[in-house]
Design brief:
The protein has about 650 residues and is an alpha+beta fold. The chain contains 20 helices and 22 strands. It folds into four domains: about 150 residues, no CATH class; about 280 residues, no CATH class; about 55 residues, no CATH class; about 80 residues, no CATH class.
């Protein structure tokens, strides 16, 4: 077996196992067997003796037992258990590569590993790994073919590998676009890890945003239909009950939002005046919907959206994969509300804070003036810091912030303002969401990270909720141009590959049928999958066949005379009753035609074919006449 073929086998095995490991979902302990691949393939490349049949058998049985234990007691997940099993089998197989079929088993196992990896991760890195795997697999197949034909080393590999790889990628793209988008996933729900967020559950511990402010993980990316000069407050969840240590959201009863014409509408609005936000939300451990307040309407493929009396909006469940939705908002920063006692609730022991509020608001005549006075006081007299020390015994964290340390982050400021507003008789609540984000000039969208998590205040003044933010402004560190470019590539990967859906398929159909203007196509334009199969798929197949046979014709024109007569030779033998398969080599034809009286002619013809087909020699006029005459004699033998 050629060393190059051995090397590619090792690379494919390592690529399959590496594709699983880079997802970050596999268990390091259960994947430890992958380390054995290195000595296994080192021995294989060196041509050392493979392991005995008994050892391989015992290891295989042991691996199956470990698989059952893994699925039941360790991973408790069939998909992860299968992933660990494939790594173990690849390790065992590296010591048991004897026949060509063994290499094909490695190729198949590597492909299975990448299929599993696609369920465990939607990372752009996986796309790079897949293209690399595809190229190496095609190279292995071409090597195998030339090895069987006895032409290895006589022809260049680059051209056939390149052309077949391109054709395979094109065919993959066609299938990816045309296959139906159904609401199922391989072996159940997707297994991609969700982002652990803070502040978006029914109960939020006071001070929990501190850790999130240090986390650069991207939570969502947002495209706006216009430039907004005001700061971006991506509203998430409102919390109204505070016991001195944690905030709670009174669920009440969630009701399903009515869907009209593919849109979840919360109130009437002017579409032209509303700001459109296309939001691409990463998988997070929260069911909260984010958007600029006040959200008037949402478009999404989700089967249902829920809301409650606070007008907070939720998905039916926490997303196990990215969610794409479009929000239409009225951003006047005020919207109607109802005065309720729960927005005036105060925990025990806040008398000192209430007295401070009264001193701050001396001279203020209206609720609006009182709210602005408290907001200014907190902004001007306290220092923003994530390095906060624990409160001394007997003092609450809020009292420690206001009267002792005077250092804290957004939750300290927002909570202090809510308590002082309530102490002044103004209904208010804390709101958790995200503030700002960085504009990616390469993609024209806004990147929102965990570090943008923020708390602010909504106060009910004149039966209208108004936003206040007592947290001092912060200096923003801008990412490098390369980081933004890489994120733009990731955004497009998530948008057009991971997030490709039925709506995108319909858009492609519309684009393809638009130039024709035919009534039948117009009727089919919005019919979804049927149109894709009737129009896109046949067109794609035609394009694929054109490319494939176009390359074949190009090859025939380049070596047309030799190849064309050899194909006639194969057809002649087939008519004479010989078994001639597409994979049948010239050597096999020579041996199969041994019974012919003109065997000497067959020997000479095949020898000339191999010499001029694979050695790259040009056939001159004299050789052409001899080559043609040999075929004529063989065909005469066939007719007799």
């Amino acid at each position: 077996m050629p060393r190059a073929y051995k090397f590619i086998t090792a690379v494919l095995a390592l690529t399959g196992c590496g594709g699983l490991l880079i997802t970050g979902e596999t268990s390091p302990l259960m994947s430890l067997s992958g380390v054995v691949l290195i000595p296994g393939y080192y021995r294989f490349l060196k041509g050392q003796r493979h392991a005995s049949k008994n050892v391989i058998g015992m290891l295989s049985v042991f691996t199956l037992a470990v698989f059952v234990f893994d699925a039941v007691a360790v991973s408790r997940n069939i998909l992860l258990a299968v992933a660990h099993l494939t790594i173990a089998f690849q390790a065992i197989k590296s010591f048991d590569l004897k026949e060509p079929w063994d290499n094909l088993q490695v190729f198949f196992m590597s492909l299975l590993q990448l299929i599993i990896a696609s369920e465990l991760s939607h990372s752009l890195v996986f796309g790079v790994v897949f293209i690399f795997f595809l190229t190496m697999l095609v190279t292995a197949m071409v090597l195998s073919h030339f090895l069987k034909e006895g032409a290895l080393g006589k022809v260049s590999l680059f051209k056939p590998v390149f052309v077949i790889t391109v054709l395979t990628v094109l065919a993959t793209i066609v299938l990816f676009i045309a296959l139906p988008r159904e609401s199922y996933r391989f072996l159940g729900k997707g297994q991609a890890r969700t982002i652990r967020t803070v502040g978006f559950s029914d109960k939020v511990d006071f001070g929990s945003f501190g850790a999130a402010k240090l986390d650069p993980t991207v939570v969502m990316r947002i495209e706006l239909d216009r430039d907004l000069h005001s700061p971006y407050y991506w509203r998430g969840l409102s919390l109204e009950y505070f016991d001195g240590w944690s905030w709670k959201h009174s669920l009440g009863s969630r009701h399903q939002v009515r869907r009209i014409g593919g849109e979840y509408a919360f109130s009437s609005y002017d579409r032209k005046a509303a700001v459109e936000q296309k939001i691409y939300l990463e998988p997070i451990d929260s069911d909260v919907i984010f958007g600029l307040a006040e959200i008037k309407s949402i478009k999404t493929d989700s089967s249902a959206l829920l809301s409650d009396t606070t007008r907070d909006i939720f998905l039916r469940g926490k997303p196990v994969e990215g969610v794409k939705y479009t929000v239409y908002s009225n951003i006047e920063e005020i919207y109607p509300g109802i005065r309720e006692e729960k927005y005036l609730q105060l925990p025990v022991g806040t008398e000192r804070i209430v007295d401070l509020a009264k001193n701050i608001t001396v001279g203020a005549k209206t609720d609006e003036e009182r709210a602005r006075a408290i907001e200014r006081y907190l902004r001007n007299n306290y220092t923003y810091s994530l390095s906060t020390s624990p409160a001394p015994e007997g003092i609450t964290p809020l009292e420690n912030f206001l009267f002792r340390s005077k250092r804290g982050f957004c939750e300290h400021y927002a909570t202090s303002m809510v308590i002082m507003l309530r102490g002044s008789g103004i209904p208010s609540r804390i709101v958790n969401g995200f503030y700002g984000g960085e504009l990616n000039r390469y993609g024209g969208y806004i990147i929102v990270r965990q570090s943008d998590a923020h708390s602010w205040v909504e106060a009910l003044i004149g039966n209208m909720w108004r936003r206040y933010d007592p947290t001092p402004p912060l200096s923003i560190r801008h990412p490098s141009a390369f980081t933004l470019f890489l994120d733009a590539v990731t955004m497009n990967w998530s948008r057009y590959v991971v997030g490709f859906n039925t709506t995108d398929q319909k858009r492609i159909v519309k684009t393809l049928t638009l130039p024709f203007g035919m009534p039948v196509l117009e009727a089919l334009r919005f019919s979804g999958m049927r149109t894709l199969w009737y129009i896109i798929f046949p067109v794609a197949i035609f394009a694929f066949l054109t490319l494939y046979y176009g390359y074949d014709v190009w090859e025939l024109r380049k070596k047309g005379f030799v190849t064309r007569h050899y194909l006639l030779f194969r057809k002649t033998l087939k008519k004479m009753g010989f078994t001639v398969l597409p994979s049948t080599t010239s050597g096999e034809l020579r041996r199969g035609a041994a019974s012919l009286k003109s065997l000497d002619d067959v020997e000479k013809f095949v020898t000339m074919y191999e010499e001029y087909r694979f050695a790259g020699k040009e056939m001159g006029p004299q050789e052409r006449r001899k080559y043609r005459s040999l075929l004529t004699e063989i065909r005469k033998q066939g007719r007799t």
